[in-house]
Write a structure and sequence with these properties.
- Residues 125-287 form the Ribosome recycling factor domain.
- Keywords: Cytoplasm, Protein biosynthesis.
- This is Ribosome recycling factor domain-containing protein.
- By secondary structure, this protein is an alpha+beta fold.
- It has three domains: 2-101; 107-127 and 211-288, Orthogonal Bundle (Topoisomerase I, Chain A, domain 4); 136-206, Gyrase A, domain 2, CATH 3.30.1360.
- It contains eight helices and six strands, in the order ααααββαββαββαα.
- It has helices spanning 2-43, 48-57, 70-101, 107-130, 156-159, 180-189, 212-249, 255-288, and strands at residues 146-149, 152-155, 160-166, 169-174, 196-198, 203-206.
- The strands form two sheets. Strands 3-4-6-5 form a four-stranded antiparallel β-sheet. The chain has a two-stranded antiparallel ribbon with strand order 1-2.
- The protein is elongated and about 135 Å long.
Length: 290
């Protein structure tokens, strides 16, 4: 009896020892897997603060998978998913910060953008000069007229045909005759210095001959348009120069590069301002010619 009891105790001890060995083997294997993951993250230069969750949550407590409950499995997956999301978010934040603080902006592209913005001022000036009558019929004078067509502001040239049968007359022929009154009202409200005449089919605009005094008055208005365009262009130049100086102050470019791009900005400004002067000179010439 005693012998049987001792054999039973010995058998139980062997089984418990085997169970302990199996648990140790499983934990050592999990530890090796964790070590490999840590080394991989270190080689990718991931911050220790990001690796910490994996150390504590990447492993599920227990001797083997059969000892893990579904709840623990789900929790581990969720934590690992959150960890990888935080790594990706940190990567994006770091790169954004590097772009904002550590990398020099593309100043060549900045100069091109500066010229593009300045040329928008040229386009605006062209539109303004088209509205100035030179004493001769010019359909372009109606380009900026907007008609309230069924509640929607619509360019007059989209709603009507415009022709100049002679040097002193402009005829506006709406495609939709029901909009004749709206077109007439829009022309009157545009303050073009012309009085529309509606005969029920078309609208006629008589362009009066300009007196010498009227020509001088219009020439002053043209110069004002030119000065406004130059102010807008110089404001754009100032913004770009300030941007270059700030880039130099942040140690992203050298002093020589800063001087170079400021000079390039001035060259673009001088070129565009010269175009403005040429446009104003042509318009003044048209006004002074009888």
């Amino acid at each position: 009896m005693k012998t049987a009891t001792l054999k039973l105790i010995s058998t139980i001890s062997l089984l418990l020892g085997a169970a302990v060995i199996l648990c140790s083997f499983h934990n050592s294997r999990s530890s090796r897997e964790l070590g490999q993951q840590v080394l991989q993250m270190k080689s990718a230069k991931v911050a220790p603060s990001i690796m910490t969750p994996m150390r504590t949550t990447g492993l599920v407590q227990g001797c083997g998978k059969k000892w893990q409950t579904p709840l623990r499995k789900k929790t581990a997956r969720q934590i690992n998913a959150r960890m990888h999301t935080s790594v990706a978010a940190r990567y994006l934040r770091v790169n954004a910060a590097a772009t904002a603080e550590g990398e020099a902006p593309d100043l060549d592209e900045k100069i091109l953008d500066t010229e593009e913005r300045m040329r928008k001022s040229i386009v605006a000036l062209q539109n303004s000069l088209m509205t100035v009558s030179t004493g001769r019929a010019n359909p372009a004078i109606l380009d900026r007229v907007q008609v309230n067509y069924y509640g929607t502001p619509t360019p007059l040239r989209s709603l009507a045909g415009v022709s100049t049968p002679n040097a002193q007359e402009i005829i506006v022929d709406p495609y939709d005759k029901s909009a004749l009154g709206d077109v007439e009202k829009a022309i009157f409200q545009a303050n073009l210095g012309l009085t529309p005449s509606n005969d029920g089919k078309v609208i006629r605009l008589l362009v009066p001959m300009l007196t010498t005094d009227r020509r001088k008055e219009l020439a002053k208005g043209v110069k004002k348009f030119g000065e406004e365009a130059k102010v807008a262009i110089r404001n754009i130049r100032r913004d770009t120069v300030d941007f270059v100086k700030k880039t130099e102050k942040n140690k992203l470019i050298s002093e020589d590069d800063s001087k170079y791009y400021q000079a390039e900005t001035q060259k673009v400004t001088d070129k565009v301002v010269k175009e403005v002067d040429a446009m104003i000179a042509r318009k003044e010439k048209d006004l002074t010619e009888m």
